[in-house]
Design brief:
- The protein is of the alpha/beta class.
- Helices cover 34% and strands 20% of the residues.
- The protein folds into 2 domains: 221 residues, Metallo-dependent phosphatases (Purple Acid Phosphatase, chain A, domain 2, 4-Layer Sandwich), CATH 3.60.21.10; 38 residues.
- Strand 11 and strand 12 form a beta hairpin.
- The longest helix has 19 residues.
- Bound molecules: fe (ii) ion.
């Protein structure tokens, strides 16, 4: 079986559309989404519609659950909390019900357990970052005791592509875009993010393909025009504060140069001015 594993779409329709197009050429049997379908960007309903049409196996992320009012936005950034309110106001009840019904875990037979943050017996797993050796070790312990008997846990939430292997008692990070898995090892795998890159120069959407027959994992990177969702997000008032300041600065420069009768002169030379006018 070939499984496409995607995560953290965050209402970025352009990124999801391009990713789904790439997935369509990979001969996959199932698509798993590790949550955070909504939040931050301006096309939440469209992204939910695509995943429902694809019959993807989805788990709920912290942003999905906040929009569904299953958790509060305590601990969210100002921008994230603002997007939760904006999103909730724009989704029809059917979509809210879909988000409300998302499970915290999905098992695909013995192949895979899918979660948003981490696997564990306690609540709040969708809000926990698997960003330390200690947390990864605890997740591996939970995976080893999981009733599905799966040896792979797919997680998201960090927006960072990562693959960790537990073999003969030690954990190591694996690099490379084509990885062979060992049937007697355990794995934590994170496909990165489709729609909201963070803390990296990588602007492409990333996802994983797991081939359960060949025991292989492939990293896929998908180019898309990120300026379109960025513009929509800005127009919706959901952009990061720094982007708003940049826009305000550009507007101020544009207004000033117009007042001084220099606008056309500056426009001709805007290639030399960072970001244009
Ligand atoms: Fe996220």
């Amino acid at each position: 079986m070939k499984i496409a594993i995607i995560s953290d779409i965050h209402a970025n329709w352009e990124a999801l559309e391009t990713t789904v197009h790439d997935i369509s050429g990979q001969g996959v049997d199932r698509i798993v989404c590790l949550g955070d379908i909504v939040g931050y960007n301006a096309n939440p309903a469209e992204c939910v519609a695509i995943l429902r049409e694809l019959d993807a196996d989805c788990v709920g992320g912290n942003h999905d659950r906040a929009v569904a009012e299953q958790i509060t936005t305590a601990g969210f950034s100002v921008r994230a909390a603002r997007a939760v309110v904006w999103t909730r106001e724009r989704l029809v009840s059917d979509v809210i019900e879909f988000l409300t019904g998302l499970p915290l875990q999905v098992s695909l037979e013995t192949h895979l357990v899918a979660v948003h943050g981490t696997l564990g017996p306690h609540g709040g797993c969708e809000n926990t970052y698997l960003d330390s050796d200690e947390r990864r070790l605890r997740c591996f312990e939970a995976l080893m005791q999981h009733p599905s008997r799966a040896r792979i846990c797919a997680y998201g939430h960090t927006h960072r592509l990562a693959i960790f292997e537990l073999r003969e008692g030690s954990v190591r990070a694996l690099d490379g875009d084509e990885i062979s898995l060992c049937e007697d090892s355990y794995y934590l795998i994170n496909p990165g993010t489709v729609g909201e890159p963070r803390g990296t120069s990588e602007r492409r959407a990333t996802y994983l393909i797991l081939d359960t027959a060949q025991l292989g994992l492939s990293v896929r990177r998908v180019e898309y025009n990120s300026s379109v969702p960025a513009l929509k997000t800005r127009r919706a008032g959901l952009a990061p504060r720094s982007a708003s300041i940049t826009t305000m600065f550009r507007t101020a420069v544009k207004w000033s140069t117009r007042q001084l009768g220099m606008y056309n002169f500056v426009r001709r030379f805007r290639g030399g001015i960072s970001g244009g006018l």
